[in-house]
Amino acid sequence: MKTAAIIVAAGRGTRAGGGLPKQWHPLAGRTVLAHSIAAFHNVVDHIVIAIHPDDRARALALQDIWPDLQIVDGGQSRAASVLAALRGLEGRGVEKVLIHDGARPLVSAQVTRDVLQALDLSIGAAPALPVTDALWRGEQGKVAGTADRAGLWRAQTPQGFRFDAILAAHLAHPGGAADDVEVARWAGHAVAIVQGDEDNLKLTFAGDFARAEQILKGRDMDIRLGNGFDVHAFTQGDHVWLCGVRLPHSHALLGHSDADVGMHALTDALYGALAEGDIGVHFPPSDPQWKGAESHIFLRHAMGRVAARGYRLANCDVTLICERPKIGPHQAAMRAALAQIMKVPVDAISVKATTSEKLGFTGREEGIAALATAALVKA
Known about the structure:
Distance between the termini: 34 Å
Shape: elongated
Largest sheet: 8 strands, mixed
């Protein structure tokens, strides 16, 4: 069954402080909403966010990270925002839909999968946790009575439904529902309870953000590795560009751009770590605007993608393979040039060289090859 997630993010809640709606607050290097979107990436087939019209510029920036992200304008209420997103999904063949609060950035893939699986047997399903604390009624700051907690649950999201059923329920509902489970039950649909997660908290107050930061720090470190390999042949000329440094030489390197073979390999390593293809995907050689382009353009773009995806460079290593020119005297300058372009410390960058012992095209001095490795960690 084709699945989709609706993330509701049109609210104006500012109780967390900072003058921003809480879904746009920074959290561990990215916005709360970006964390929420990432939680559903590779779990469902399609994601749509319902936003306030004033936030469209911020939302469009998220499409740089997730190009297939669908954006719709929400309404004056949560239910209106959900309905707008549901209408936006019509005609896409969606059979199961998850509806999630944008201010719950820590939902696990396990909870999401459990809800989707429960929809095989039920029209609706939602995660929840049993109430274990004693319940009091209060008046004027004092305990006025107690309440029975038996059978009570703390509701969470994502709340999942068969798409056609929840769309019809929202279209018919008079409004004022607390959540989508209430809408579904009003329409006569049973909703199954699946096990929730204590970490799946809804961020509301400033203290919630501190707790969320600690949870994120405690999760497994996300490390990504990528490698790149590039080759350029020699042609007529009097210099080569290698790792951002101009070296006098008896020949130049042939290429569509400035043919900086070291920087190209490093750029491909960064794209590879992100599983975003290579330079040719982002800067097609068939496009004449990149003819003769300086390679720092490509490398800066790759580092921008690293930051946009919530990662930082841990370290990188570039190996240049050639007989000449000699690289040793220029290694420090190359490291410094790459550090300036990538805006990282010099000690995060290694540049070294080797020969191929006179073997192959590099041994015959027909060109230069480069191999690069990059390690990324979650910011």
